[in-house]
Amino acid sequence: MKTGDTVVYLDGSFVPQREAAVSPLDRGFMFADGVYEVIRSYRGSLFEEAAHIERLHRSLREIRIDKGAANGLEEIFPELLDRSGLAGSEALIYVQITRGAAPRTHQFPAVKAAPTVYAHAVPFDPPLEQRDRGIPVILVPDTRWSRCDIKSISLLPNILARQMAEDAGAGEAVFVRDGVVTEGATSTFCAVLSGTVVTHPESNVVLPGITKRIVFDLCSRTGIPVAERPFREEELPRAAEMMLLSTTREIMPVISVDGMDVGGGTPGSLTRKLQAAFSAVIRSV
User: Fold this and answer.
1) S-S: 256 plus which of 113, 136, 168, 196, CB 3.0-4.6 Å?
2) In sequence order, what are the residues at sequence separation of 6 or more whose Cβ sits closer than 8 angstroms to the Cβ of residue 147?
3) Is the whole model's pTM more than 0.90, yes or no?
4) Active site residue: 67, 151, 212, 273, which one?
């Protein structure tokens, strides 16, 4: 392998990215028939790795791919970081598992295919300036399917929504389904209403957030009330603060929605308190 080659993991082997090849009959390519996870590496330590693997297993189960396809990832990831020159660095690991290559049929293949397992590691530059000042968001209709709890690679509605945000000069698109705020295109969305951090309850229309679970635990430890309940778009003008939660954004303040300032257009004190608590968790990793 030449010096400087980007290394990826594909179906049991570490190979240069330029040599990695997936069949055009792969059902991930044909149908987006697969699932994925993104894991954050802080100084080479994988954050909440077990929770991400557990969620990957759940997604595999829900689309009826044998969860054994994810076996051994815990051993693969450190080697992938090392081979990518990212051991001890800020990085992201992306892992994707599809149903594999088979003749194109809408039903599952008559002869079970071997799942395709792919992973790569890339350097990550945290959005520190954005986390300090906050970002604007826009609201968009939630046109996605009814199984958003599965971390599917079929992300076209999210892509279109995220591009709408980009075109509007915003940092995220937040979905609204039948008047109810669900989640961001790439994040969990929270609003602070009457001093309580509120987010949509876990259900088939939102992804169960790992960062959200950590933040709600921090709220419990620091005496901040939380509520998981459906809340409607018309409640947003009453929110004192808003924030996005995700693996890459951590806790991102929202300072405006569709041009309407939130908290005077600056991150609020409760958001800052949670950011400090989250940073303490990261320092302990």
Assistant:
1) 136
2) 62, 204
3) yes
4) 151
